[in-house]
TrEMBL record, chain A:
Source domain of life: Bacteria
Subcellular location: Cell membrane
Gene3D superfamilies per record: Formate dehydrogenase/DMSO reductase domain (1.20.1630.10)
InterPro entries for this protein: Electron_transfer_protein, NrfD-like
GO cellular component: plasma membrane
Descriptive protein name: Tetrathionate reductase
Membrane topology: Multi-pass membrane protein
TM stretches of this protein: 22-41, 53-71, 91-114, 146-165, 185-206, 227-246, 258-277, 289-307, 332-354
UniProtKB keywords: Cell membrane, Membrane, Transmembrane, Transmembrane helix
Homology family: Belongs to the NrfD family.
Primary site of residence: membrane
TrEMBL record, chain C:
Protein name from the UniProt record: Tetrathionate reductase subunit TtrA
Family stated for the protein in its record: Belongs to the prokaryotic molybdopterin-containing oxidoreductase family.
A GO molecular-function annotation: molybdopterin cofactor binding
Domain 4Fe-4S Mo/W bis-MGD-type: 72-156
Segments traversing the membrane: none
Keywords: 4Fe-4S, Iron, Iron-sulfur, Metal-binding, Molybdenum, Oxidoreductase, Signal
Parts forming coiled coils: none
InterPro entries: Asp_de-COase-like_dom_sf (IPR009010), MopB_CT_Tetrathionate (IPR037946), MoPterin_dinucl-bd_dom (IPR006657), Mopterin_OxRdtase (IPR006656), Mopterin_OxRdtase_4Fe-4S_dom (IPR006963), Prok_Mopterin_Oxidored (IPR050612), Tetrathionate-R_A_N (IPR041929)
Superkingdom of origin organism: Bacteria
Pfam families per UniProt: Molybdopterin, Molydop_binding
């Protein structure tokens, strides 16, 4: 029997690019949280710059992510309904509790970690910036123990996010590509690639003469990047074919567009590995950093695009894919650029503020605070 | 399995017509592919133009029976709508219990509660749901509950040119649908039985090739971005 | 990088980032704020669960009683979504007067399988549509029927009188007052600053010949052409104005580009070259139906009833059908199994297939001899057949004989007859079956079927052949293999089909229609329909049924006689389209013969057997043969969209006011044709207007749809408060010109008392009185009928125009949307109740004695193989050889759309473009894939289309779905005063095959390619080539 569809209406994509954005930022946030815990534990070998970068990525992304998520709700004003009608059997509902917890913890962790730096804002000549130093909420010292336990809690909370976001989609039996263990794993491992990409953006933003030599990226930082990129990209390349072969009706490997997508993804992950190898050998000047972050961010982003958006173009029933073209407006390109813009804006402001202290405070002061942290 | 089926219908106004179970039977032999149901539904339920609670897919089918006879080409029409599944995955996923299944089997959405996360849209294996771009809430066939409750027929049934669509209470053994289901028991199929959703839109004369998915040449589509 | 620059860049990043975010997130913010304030980000729904679904029109309470919804009414009306013109029921919002939804009228046979008995009270009728009962009782509207309510508020609708500004066709209009409209159209003058234009008053001269050389052309008044689309219920008043008040001969409608080749072919068989009657299968009881060149359930007239009946029939055990067409129609049903089959065919070759079948039937004695051999009504009665035909009548077959092709009459061979020789009472001669002697068709015994002999007449020998003998010889002119090669269907399949068709006794039927619209359509249709005659299924249950017809309305009725009025004009002269008049009687013919020259060829063909042809009117007028026009009033017809090739041929000519000085359109929209007018008179849409129609066919019982304005017209009003529409325009024009038949004392009642005709109401309410009183009349309506049908709004007018007794009866029919005979009256035993009474013509005398005026050759009087031809008889594929034009274009009606349904956005959202069907074999050859754009070229023009590769199209053929490719009706923005109409967002709504239609180069006076015998449009089987890239 040969079938030709004469008249079949397409099914519109239900989740818009906002969903990809959410997954991208929240993934980066939880991965950064985990990397931060590791970096913090190895704090004698990792640099403050690197840890700050991670902690900022975590906090900014944990705030940006939910903003993107809200946009994917067509009724953002009804977000309260999540709490009014808590539904424990729905992963999305569970997520509505987990997500604010994580975001809150992420901000607290970042705040705790950066309290000293915030305190330094006093040094600014600008009265408004000076006042920001009050955000330390007192003069007390953050103990290492407090820091570690908060960071670990955040890391754990990050894992719950990884779990719920993964399962939320994986439970959807309607889409075989989502309904498999490989899909949450794929998102989980690539989240680290995104976290590293964003961290490198922060480092690039912070990078200036004013950062003291000993604070600059250490070899351990670079090794963490290297190992993470190599490990996660390799795992992604292992999971990807497993994931793709789970489509029940069409063999994705037979479809030209999908071949292209997979090829692009593989090239991306290999590029990430190369970045990983390069990272320990290069000087990490701003152009390199930007190049590295571009490669890693695009790889992470595109994986999400393919696994979330392109998957939705695969019909549940009909013969051929429903074509999707990225709209230019809010629900498309403008929305994507907007979220990125917001992320960069926050990152710029924050790193700039941190620069303030770096350019003004004395080394001693800093060393002291650093000591305090490392010994407390 | 022993898993409980989530219906989200504890509230009093979510019970529907207790004691009944509505279902639809589509006699595909009688469907002429005229799309009257599509338009009738679209107007009755004031769906935004271009968003449909029911559709009718039109196919060309070439039968190659292996003989030397030239190929036999024919047409096939498939009306589609929400199956008002007995085990509706769309209901289970809703994070705010906005979508629910009444005691009479009808799966509905509470437009005032829905946060329009489209989770249910994703969960439906039948593409039966969409986010209504005007109301900005999940939308789907309601079996025209607002009409059935008043003793009237749904728009699509009422205006079905071929007389293919039959709706009724399958718990009432004397209803037209029950009689027809009994008469055609052998020939009755549902879409994607393997999904375990237990659809309650039944088809007479649904060819096996169309039960789970269509393998064939794809339609021509206008590429679309989002609608909302 | 220095610090400043870095700062600058960073602040840029911050500002840019936040700015982009603000923009990208704006709609979410809006949704959020809106949501917080209003409780929803979207449109508030009326009900938390039912959303914005309409409130039910009524409900059934616990006791099973119908409870009204005081905010709504349900009124009967008529659909104009296609030319089936079904009766519908319309839900109207009482507060806003908006139409809410449309479904079928339960009393109406076109919307129902078995319409509800007419005496059912309206309330009970509505109750029968509900609940379980409603499943059986369902009365439907199709997709268009549902969707067309959108035309009422369409942004493209015209609601005020318009006059063109700028050049004709430019798309710029100025609203004018109704008074100005009437004055300018009637009085003429320098209306557009382009010189003097004659108004209607100047054109109306019913005495002076328009051409003194050719007095038979008739008076000057014939220089007004009045056309409408078809009879959508308002034909009578239009014709009254044209023929009997204004006095022009020239009225035309879409018939010639609808299915006229079929109608003419059927008229030839039915012996009815006046009304061109046809039969339809009794689907309910037939066992086998062969559809050749028509596609039930895809289109067809009536679309909906036929679709419903077919759907039911194919679930029966004893029913099968086949469709033969170049493209796979949606008539076929995989779900119904083996009982239905599609057979592809080369376009325009149907008579080859059918003559092949008939040949086999002759060879294998598969004719219904019993039916065929009854020579007349007496024999029919005696034999107990349901009908008779002229198979046994003797045709004069001697080419030298002055009556070549005519039937031998009693007077010619010295047999007894009454009245004048060769008059109707002079019987036909036959050969008695038993005695082999000459006899008369009036005898009670059967006659010889096959006769070929020479008879001694008083004036010498006459070679005669029986009609059936003629058919047999025509059939055997070619071998079966030749026929098979022509149509591309293997001989064994032709035989199998003939075998199948003749294996069900009289319970097999053939039906055809639009698939004959090609240049040899007449003979194809005549051949196809001959199959019914050969098995003798006419008037039989399960066979072919005649049209049941309707009841009198605006004719001569029991209450009012519309046909007589003081000063009534009888139109005279020759139709502009040179039809129905033998060229041999013209002055031109006589002049040419007198001058010793051959009278043939004529400048353009004459059509001796045809009705007036809108396919020719305009080209004839522009060419001036036989004469030119001064004005054209067009109501709703859209020939520039619907006639293949016409827009290419005449589009520019019609834009030149010198060619046709005054064009007035009466329409609700600016379509491809009205776009070329000087004035547009806004018209009501179907739900707002009056009208009386009867089903085109397919209903075995009598029916008249009577529609009345169920909602207020959206057109502007006249000074005295009537809505502007066709009727009031005609009435006011006539009154201004003091034409007879309108104004005071225009309509006589049964007692001879005269009544005025000042408004549409005056006309239709009295027509309705006729309808209500006809055939023993109907009862008085009860108050509930009036209430439930929403008829209350009409009562003031009814009280003004009708007597109180009339009012009650008129209310009875209006509440039910017309007058309908009960479904149970369909049959009388094994026969249809309403029968066709004229004998069938195996040989059509009129056709067989007429000539083609280009070649001077006689037409054949029975089905005969003719390939597609140009007007001068040149076969189409000689004119356009296959080597150069390898493709053939074919056309089919959309199963979703009609030519006007693109006015419904909802319908367009289901299907908005029409990819062109191409066979995989052809696609491969040209490297085409589905979705590719390619160019299609015919000898006349070229278009770009999207390819859809399907098995369901004959190789070498391209299939076009009709109803798309509009250039107007919203596709182009017109300026009305200072405002521009909105344009549709889409760049294209697909393609129209008519844009590729051919001009016939073999005729002197330019015209489009038409059927070479009857002048119907040729939209099928056009030669073409394609190119890619
Ligand atoms: N859906 C819908 N229904 C309609 C209408 C509409 O616009 N839309 N319009 C109404 C009107 S006005 C009319 S007149 C009727 C017409 O109803 P139909 O006559 O049934 O429709 P058409 O599409 O004109 O032609 C019928 C078929 O002829 C086939 N055909 C074309 N060329 C050839 C040929 O050379 N040989 C053979 N054997 N077949 C051929 C086409 O494939 C097509 O399927 O439909 C009415 N009903
Ligand atoms: N290629 C091709 N050509 C065809 C056909 C085909 O199948 N293929 N079909 C042919 C057939 S069968 C036919 S019958 C003809 C039909 O051709 P026509 O009868 O000439 O015209 P229609 O296209 O039906 O359009 C009628 C016009 O009426 C107007 N109108 C619509 N609704 C209303 C209303 O409610 N009130 C008023 N006052 N005006 C209204 C619109 O301006 C519309 O353009 O076309 C023929 N042409
Ligand atoms: S068809 Fe889809 S929307 Fe309807 S009940 Fe089943 S899963 Fe839910
Ligand atoms: S879109 Fe509405 S109904 Fe669907 S899951 Fe989300 S909240 Fe529930
Ligand atoms: S039952 Fe009502 S809502 Fe459902 S498809 Fe039919 S008309 Fe639409
Ligand atoms: S209205 Fe009935 S016959 Fe027409 S497409 Fe819908 S289900 Fe089929
Ligand atoms: S068949 Fe034609 S007239 Fe009847 S409802 Fe459909 S569109 Fe209207
Ligand atoms: Mo027509």
């Amino acid at each position: 029997m040969n079938i030709t569809e004469i008249l079949v209406p397409p099914q519109a994509l239900a989740w818009l690019p906002w969903a990809v954005q959410y997954f991208f930022y929240i993934g980066s946030a939880y991965a950064a949280a985990i990397l931060f815990v590791i970096s913090f534990i190895c704090r004698s070998h990792t640099s403050h710059q690197w840890r700050s970068a991670l902690v900022l990525v975590m906090a900014i992304s944990a705030v940006i992510g939910p903003i993107a998520l809200t946009a994917d709700l067509h009724q953002p004003g009804r977000s309260l309904h999540f709490f009014l009608h808590f539904t424990p059997w729905s992963w999305m509902s569970i997520g509505s509790l987990l997500l604010p917890t994580f975001s809150g913890l992420a901000v607290i962790t970042a705040w705790l970690y950066l309290r000293d730096d915030i305190a330094q804002l006093k040094q600014s000549s600008n009265i408004w910036i000076q006042r920001l130093s009050l955000l330390t909420l007192g003069q007390w010292k953050t103990s290492n123990k407090l820091m570690l336990s908060t960071a670990s809690l955040t890391g754990l909370s990050g894992l719950t996010i990884a779990l719920y976001t993964g399962l939320e989609i994986a439970v959807l039996a309607s889409r075989p590509l989502w309904h498999q263990p490989a899909s949450p794993l794929l998102w989980f491992v690539t989240a680290f690639i995104g976290a590293i990409g964003l961290s490198m953006v922060i480092v690039a933003l912070m990078k200036s003469q004013s950062v003291k030599k000993h604070e600059r990226m250490s070899l351990t930082d670079r090794k963490i990047i290297r190992h993470t990129l190599i490990l996660m990209s390799t795992l992604a390349m292992v999971f990807l074919p497993i994931w793709a072969s789970n489509h029940v009706h069409n063999n994705l490997f037979d479809i030209y567009e999908w071949q292209l997508r997979f090829a692009t993804l593989f090239i991306g992950f290999i590029a990430c590995i190369i970045v990983g190898i390069w990272v320990t050998r290069s000087t990490l000047k701003r152009p390199q950093l930007l190049l590295f972050s571009l490669v890693t961010l695009l790889s992470c982003w595109y994986l999400r695009w393919v696994t979330m958006m392109e998957v939705q173009t695969l019909p549940n029933y009909d013969a051929g894919p429903y074509p999707y073209s990225l709209p230019m407006g809010p629900n498309g390109l403008l929305g994507i650029l907007g979220m990125l813009g917001l992320w960069l804006a926050i990152a710029t402001v924050v790193t700039e503020l941190l620069n303030v202290k770096q350019s003004t405070h004395t080394r001693k002061n800093h060393a002291h605070s650093h000591e305090a942290l490392s010994n407390g | 399995s022993a898993t409980v089926i989530i219906r989200n219908n504890e509230a009093a106004d979510r019970k529907g017509m207790v004691g009944k179970r509505y279902a639809m039977l589509v006699d595909l032999r009688k469907c002429v592919g005229c799309q009257a149901c599509t338009i009738g539904c679209s107007i009755e339920n004031q769906a935004p133009i271009g968003q449909f609670r029911t559709t009718v897919k039109q196919y060309e089918v070439t039968l190659d029976n292996g003989s030397t006879e030239a190929k036999n080409v024919t047409s096939f029409m498939l009306p589609r709508l929400c199956n008002h599944c007995e085990n509706p995955p769309c209901v289970a996923v809703c994070p705010v219990q906005a979508t629910f299944q009444r005691e009479d089997g009808i799966v509905m959405v509470d437009n005032e509660r829905c946060v329009a996360c489209a989770y249910c849209v994703q969960a439906c294996p039948y593409d039966a749901r969409f986010i209504n771009e005007e109301t900005l809430t999940a939308d789907k066939c309601t079996f025209c509950a607002h009409r059935i409750e008043e003793g009237l027929l749904p728009a699509c049934v009422e205006t079905c040119v071929g007389g293919a669509r039959v709706i009724g209470d399958i718990k009432d053994l004397g209803s037209e649908i029950s009689l027809l289901m009994a008469k055609h028991r052998q020939e009755i199929k549902v879409l994607k039985p393997e999904a375990g959703t237990q659809p309650h839109v039944f088809y007479i004369s649904l060819d096996n090739q169309f039960v789970s998915n269509v393998e064939g040449k794809a339609a021509i589509y206008d590429p679309k971005g989002d609608r909302a | 990088m220095d610090n400043k620059r870095r700062q600058f860049l960073k602040s840029g990043l911050v500002v840019g980032g936040v700015g982009t975010f603000a923009a990208g997130y704006a709609s979410t913010t809006k949704h959020m704020v809106h949501g917080l304030i209003e409780g929803t980000s979207g449109e508030k729904t009326k009900h938390p669960h039912f959303g914005n679904s309409l409130d039910p029109e009524f409900k059934v309470n616990q006791q099973g009683r119908l409870i009204a919804n005081p905010d709504q009414r349900v009124a009967p009306s008529m659909c104009f979504g296609c030319w089936s013109l079904c009766g519908v029921r319309v839900r109207v919002d009482n507060n806003s007067d908006e139409i809410l939804r449309i479904s079928g009228n339960p009393y109406h046979p076109l919307s129902n399988e078995h319409q509800l008995p007419f005496d059912t009270p309206v309330k009970e009728a509505y109750l029968s549509l509900t609940g379980e009962a409603g499943l059986k009782g369902r009365s439907t509207a199709c997709a268009r029927g549902n969707g067309m309510l959108e035309i009422r508020n369409s942004p493209y609708r015209i609601t005020q009188p318009l006059k063109r500004v700028g050049k004709r066709g430019e798309g710029k209009w100025q609203p004018i007052s109704y008074e100005q409209l009437l004055t300018e159209v009637v009085e003429g003058g320098d209306l557009f600053g382009e010189g003097h234009v004659d108004g209607l008053r100047a054109i109306r001269d019913v005495n002076t010949p328009l051409d003194s050389e050719n007095p038979e052309y008739g008076p000057k008044a014939n220089q007004l052409l009045m056309t409408n689309a078809g009879n959508e219920g308002r034909d009578d008043i239009f014709k009254r104005f044209a023929f009997n008040s204004f006095g022009t001969r020239n009225f035309g409608h879409h018939g010639s580009y609808c299915g006229y080749a079929f109608r003419a072919g059927s008229g030839a068989l039915m012996n009815d070259l006046k009304k061109f009657a046809h039969v339809k299968p009794d689907i309910e009881h037939a066992e086998f139906i062969l559809y050749i060149g028509m596609s039930p359930a895809q289109a067809g007239n009536p679309f909906k009833r036929q679709a419903r009946q077919l759907a039911t029939a194919r679930t029966r055990d004893n029913f099968e059908y086949q469709v033969i067409s170049p493209t796979l129609p949606s008539s076929m049903s995989l779900a119904s199994g083996d009982n239905n089959r599609w057979q592809s065919i080369k376009p325009g070759t149907d008579s080859a297939l059918v003559l092949g079948m008939i040949q086999w039937m002759f060879d294998n004695n598969r004719l219904n001899d019993r039916f065929l051999s009854q020579p007349g009504p007496n024999a029919m009665q005696h034999a107990g057949t349901a009908h008779w035909c002229n198979a046994t009548h003797l045709v004069i077959s001697d080419a030298q004989h002055p009556r070549f092709g005519a039937f031998l009459r009693a007077s010619e061979v010295g047999l007894t007859f009454e009245g004048k020789p060769l008059s109707d009472s002079d019987p036909y001669v036959i050969v008695d079956a038993d005695s082999n002697a000459l006899g008369l068709h009036t005898q009670t015994a059967p006659a010889q079927l096959f006769v070929d002999r020479t008879i001694e007449g008083p004036n010498g020998d006459i070679r005669v052949k029986s009609s059936l003998q003629q058919l047999k010889e025509a059939t055997f002119k070619h071998e079966l293999s030749f026929y098979s090669e022509q149509c591309g269907i293997e001989t064994n399949k032709i035989i199998a089909l003939a075998d199948k068709f003749t294996s069900h006794g009289t319970k097999a039927v053939v039906d055809t229609h639009g698939g004959n619209m090609h240049s040899n359509g007449f003979y194809n249709a005549f051949s196809i329909l001959m199959l019914n005659a050969l098995i003798g299924n006419i008037n039989l249950k399960g066979g072919a049924m005649a049209k049941a017809g309707g009841y009198p309305t605006s004719g001569k009725g029991p209450r009012y006689d519309f046909t007589q009025f003081e000063g009534k004009v009888q139109p005279k002269g020759i139709f502009l389209s040179r039809s129905k008049f033998p060229y041999e009687k013209t002055s031109e013919y006589k002049r040419r013969v007198a001058a010793g020259e051959s009278p043939y060829p004529t400048r353009s063909p004459w059509y001796p057997i045809s009705s007036p042809l809108l396919t020719e009117h305009l080209s004839a007028a522009i060419d001036g043969y036989p004469y030119r026009l001064k004005a054209w009033i067009n109501h709703m017809a859209n020939p520039l969209y619907g006639v293949p090739g016409l827009a290419n041929l005449l589009g520019d000519k019609l834009k030149d006011p010198k060619e046709l000085p005054l064009i007035v359109s009466v329409d609700a929209f600016i379509n491809e044709t009205t776009a070329l007018s000087d004035y547009i008179v806004p018209d009501t849409v179907t739900y707002e207007s009056w009208g009386m129609t009867s089903p085109w066919h397919g209903v075995p019982t009598k029916a008249v749809t009577a529609r009345w304005p169920i909602v207020e017209a959206r057109t502007t009003k006249t000074a005295d408060g009537r809505s502007i529409n066709l009727e009031n325009f005609l009435i006011d024009t006539a009154k201004m010109m003091a034409l007879p038949g309108f104004g005071d004392n225009a309509i006589a009642d049964a007692k001879g008392k005269l009544h005025g005709l000042h408004s549409a109401e005056d006309f239709y309410l009295r027509s309705a009185a006729n309808l209500a009183y006809a055939a023993n009349g109907v009862p008085q309506a009860c108050g509930e009928d009036v209430y439930w049908s929403g008829l209350e709004r009409l009562l003031p007018d009814m009280k003004r125009v009708l007597t109180s007794e009339e009012l009650g009866k008129v209310a009875y029919i209006f509440a039910r949307g017309g007058r309908f005979e009960d479904a149970e009256k369909s049959y009388q035993g094994e026969q249809m109740k309403h029968k066709w009474s004229k004998p069938l013509a195996i040989w059509n005398e009129k056709v067989g004695t007429s000539r083609n005026t280009i070649t001077g050759e006689y037409y054949s009087g029975c089905p005969t193989w003719h390939p597609q031809k140009m007007a001068d008889g040149t076969p189409l594929d000689e004119q356009y050889p296959k080597s150069q034009w390898p493709f053939t274009l074919s056309n089919f009606k959309s199963n979703i759309h009609s030519a006007v349904s693109n006015l419904s956005p909802r319908l367009n959202s289901i299907k908005g473009v029409n990819p062109v069907y191409i066979n995989p074999v052809d696609a491969d050859k040209h490297g085409l894939s589905t979705g590719d754009i390619f160019t299609i070229t015919t000898p006349s023009s070229s278009i770009e289309a999207i390819a859809l590769i399907v098995d369901g199209v004959t190789p070498g053929t391209l299939g076009f779905e009709h109803g798309f490719g509009h250039k107007e009706l919203g596709e182009r923005a017109h300026w009305i005063g200072d405002t521009q109409q909105p344009v549709k967002m889409k760049t294209s709504d697909g393609v129209n095959i008519n844009d590729l239609g051919l001009t016939d180069p073999t005729r002197q006076g330019k015209g489009v390619l038409l059927d070479w015998v009857v002048g119907s449009a040729a939209r099928q089987a056009l030669p073409a080539k394609i190119s890619v890239g």
